[in-house]
Amino acid sequence: MSVRRLLLAAAVALAGCAPSVSMSGPTGPLDERCQWTGRHQGPWVFQEQESIIAFFEATSLEEYRRVLPAIFAMPERPLVRVSVIDFYAMINGATYLESVVSVLGLHQGRAGFFHVTMPVTSGDSCAGGRSTFGYPKIVRRITLERRPHGYVGVLYAAGGLTPQFTLALDTARQPSGEALEVLRFVAPMPGFTMKDGRVFRFGGGARPAYELERASPTTWQVRLGQARLEFPREPDQLLERLGVGRALAAYWIRQRARYSITPS
Q: What phi and psi, each to the nearest 5 degrees, are found at residue 233?
């Protein structure tokens, strides 16, 4: 795969969604701030972002099956991916943060991560993503901070005071051989959304995260580490219902490149 194609595939996998056309408004029940303002017309164009991304075991298969749409088959190895992303430099579109919880599933025999929930800090990103490709966006407070030996991302519940989850990446702790295998296993997998019964597919690449910087050091910076995920142990919490357990692999990644997003 060429560096250009690699860049686009990985960017789509990391970025979630930006509207590819201007829209008059969202559809479906929305948070009161999930509204298209009209300030950002045309395709959103990204310039620079950083993310922490982690993969976990899921132990509650009944709930896992429930959050996967019926059109998706269960994978042999259920995985939950949790991400926090900061889109802090845009050429066109609002800057915003995003958090994503996705579960691995099979669509027409292809493995990928179905996005179950995707809070964002921008009403325009929220409305645009929901209206175009069915991204499950709501507006919430999200933070992503650098620490002496890693990064911490926090998604807050409605009201912005109580953490809904805290994802910490310790880059001082090196990954295991199992972690590298997991990162290679998930590398080609796209992200999936659904809207009006149609499945949209985004991204999927050939290289695992730990090879991206070597392939294009001017575009990527990558730091592997070990993840810790904290969330309220309450029955109505998605991560608790999924039985999210052992952290399998995690990394921080920074991307510097201009791109827009369309489904494949």
A: -85, 65
